[in-house]
């Protein structure tokens, strides 16, 4: 069963066109931020999943990058845009 909430943010795979916006969120959120090239490398890595959370008309609200190896996963970077932190959806 799938429940669709009106105006709820959507989670989708990150695209290369998302990288400038994701890198900006990273820069405002993380003391030692990843570069745009680091996000490009993660997108090209077959052992990584890169996701974004997107609002209907608000652009990218947050993102996460997870690396997988054998039977383990490591959340390597995650952030939410500062003007959307603390919101419950």
How would the blueprint of this fold be written?
Blueprint: E1 10-13, H1 19-29, H2 36-44, E2 48-55, E3 59-69, E4 72-80
Antiparallel strand pairs: 1-2, 2-3, 3-4
- Main sheet properties: 4 strands, antiparallel
Q: What is the average of the pLDDT values?
A: 89
Order of helices and strands: EHHEEE
| Structure class | alpha+beta
Looking at CATH, which topology would you report? Aminopeptidase
Total beta-strand segments: 4
Order the strands across the largest sheet as they lie in space. 1-2-3-4
By CATH, the superfamily comes out as: Gcn5-related N-acetyltransferase (GNAT)
Give the CATH level 1 class: Alpha Beta
- Low-confidence spans: pLDDT under 50, at least 5 residues? none
Helix count, DSSP H or I runs of 4 or more residues: 2
Helix content: 10-25%
Proportion of residues in extended strands: 35-45%
Using only CA atoms, what is the Rg?
Answer: 13 Å
CATH architecture: 3-Layer(aba) Sandwich
Broad shape: globular
Head-to-tail CA distance between termini: 18 Å
| Tally of domains | 1
Structural features, described:
The structure is a single chain. By secondary structure, this protein is α+β, with helices and mostly antiparallel strands. It has one domain (13-82): 3-Layer(aba) Sandwich (Aminopeptidase), CATH 3.40.630. The chain has two helices and four strands; from the N terminus they run E-H-H-E-E-E. It has helices at residues 19-29, 36-44; strands at 10-13, 48-55, 59-69, 72-80. A four-stranded antiparallel beta sheet has the order 1-2-3-4, covered by helices on one side. The mean pLDDT is 89.
């Amino acid at each position: 069963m799938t429940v669709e909430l009106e105006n709820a943010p959507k989670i989708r795979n990150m695209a290369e066109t998302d990288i400038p916006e994701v890198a900006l969120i990273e820069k405002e959120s993380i003391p030692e931020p990843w570069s745009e090239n680091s996000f490009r490398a993660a997108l090209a890595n077959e052992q990584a999943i890169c996701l974004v959370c997107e609002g209907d008309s608000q652009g990218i609200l947050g993102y996460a990058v997870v690396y997988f190896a054998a039977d383990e996963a490591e959340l390597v970077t995650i952030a939410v845009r500062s003007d959307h932190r603390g919101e419950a959806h």
